[in-house]
Amino acid sequence: MPRVSTSILGISIVSGILSFVWAADHIPLYNFVFLPFAIRAFFIFDAALSIIAGILFILSFRLITIKILYLLEVIYWWINYLLLTLTRVLPAPIIGKPLPVTTGPALIAFILDVLLIIFSTILYIMINR
């Protein structure tokens, strides 16, 4: 098993916790009955992917040799960020109009997406050095 530096381990754990917080921010959105079921199901699916991403971050001390996982993490968080921001400007799928800019879960998700993009990119670069 390769030796993992404490900085990589620290960033991994923080990123994993932030991924879990991101999922906790999205799971309650399933209960918004005024949203179409497809969007509510998407929130649950995306929250499940976020939990998996968090587990992969935290298990970096075991999975560090599978470098492609960390590139996939960067791509995943970029996709989440782009979905969040673009649906505020362009028509959202299924609804057909831009979503409202809120100060609730969308703002929390925006901040977490930016942090997770930064941390996952730093982690990917450190692992590939």
TrEMBL record:
Highest taxon listed in the record's lineage = Archaea
Name the keywords, alphabetized.
Membrane, Transmembrane, Transmembrane helix
TM annotation in the entry: 33-61, 68-86, 106-127
Query: Which protein are we looking at?
Result: Uncharacterized protein
